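Inverse folding, one chain.
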């Protein structure tokens, strides 16, 4: 039988500085806090839902 090498060649650390969370950009912060943008997204989502329901009941 052939022998299988089960040794680990590289140890990967679970928590490294490169695994930190992303920091939101100023534009993302604006979109998250702007009530006008949230209202526009609300209207768009409602229109999409109406179209889906309309297709299923049509």
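Residues assigned per position:
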């Amino acid at each position: 039988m052939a022998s299988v090498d089960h040794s680990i060649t590289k140890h990967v650390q679970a928590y490294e500085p490169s695994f930190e969370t992303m920091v939101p950009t100023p534009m993302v912060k604006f979109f998250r806090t702007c009530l006008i943008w949230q209202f526009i997204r609300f209207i768009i989502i409602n229109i999409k839902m109406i179209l889906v329901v309309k297709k299923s009941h049509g």
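Residues 35-57 form the longest helix (23 residues). Residues 24-57 form one domain.
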